[in-house]
Design a protein that fits this description.
With about 210 residues, this protein is an alpha+beta fold. The chain has two domains: about 45 residues; about 140 residues, no CATH class. An eight-stranded antiparallel β-sheet has the order 1-2-3-4-8-7-6-5, with no helix packed on it. A hairpin with a 4-residue loop joins strand 2 and strand 3. It is globular, with a radius of gyration of 34 Å.
């Protein structure tokens, strides 16, 4: 047989082998890609944004909008209010042992509202109605942190705190995401979880400017 035919045969044989190898490699790659596509989890739908809500009022007043005159009218059942140092005015609810403190500016505009446990009352009252000092969404002093998080979502931060030697936890909410015309900060002081029981709200502060 002529040598050139042998050379051509060898070339065809080599070319065939190379082609089969290339096709096998291509098939293997396609199989691996298909397997990965089938076994890899599909991108999950974008997680829903964590629930959050901003607060506008506390004790029926809006920081930055309400005046001391309005505060006195809203709280007339608790007296005229007691003037404190630092442009503060306080009202006390002896039956529920609560206090409401307001920080005002030079124009007598309410800037900060703070409702909290007073721990200074000796009155023995038989009140069954809840305190009128609540947030617009209905959070009151003594409510559970479970209700707090249900209403407003997780806080921007939590930090340890104490009062009269009692270990507490400060929940901080910033509302700047809701725009500049709403109260900007809410701080909620809570007792800590104990023996599987959720903490309780002991003080709520709502402020127009950043604290």
């Amino acid at each position: 047989m002529p040598s050139w035919r042998n050379d051509n045969s060898r070339r065809h044989l080599c070319s065939g082998r190379l082609l089969r190898r290339a096709l096998f490699a291509l098939f293997s790659t396609a199989t691996i890609i298909a397997a990965q596509t089938q076994t890899s989890p599909k991108p999950s739908a974008k997680k829903a944004a964590a629930h959050r809500a901003n607060e506008m009022t506390l004790a029926g007043m809006r920081p930055g909008r309400a005046s001391l005159t309005q505060a006195a009218l809203v709280n007339k059942e608790f007296g005229k209010g007691k003037s404190l140092p630092g442009d503060q005015t306080a009202w006390y609810d002896p039956c529920r042992d609560l206090s409401l403190t307001i920080d005002s500016d030079g124009q007598k505009q309410v800037q900060v509202i703070r409702a909290g446990m007073w721990a200074g009352s000796t009155a023995d009252c038989m009140l069954k109605t809840p305190s009128p000092w609540k947030t617009g969404l209905g959070l009151r002093v003594s409510d559970s942190v479970t209700k707090l998080e249900t209403l407003y979502g997780p806080p921007d931060s939590k930090s340890p705190s104490t009062r009269n030697g009692q270990p507490l936890e400060l929940w901080y909410y910033a509302f700047d995401w809701a725009g500049p015309d709403v109260p900007q900060v809410m701080e909620v002081l809570c007792t800590r979880e104990k023996e599987g029981q959720p903490g309780r709200v002991v003080e709520i502060t709502l402020a127009a400017p950043s604290l």
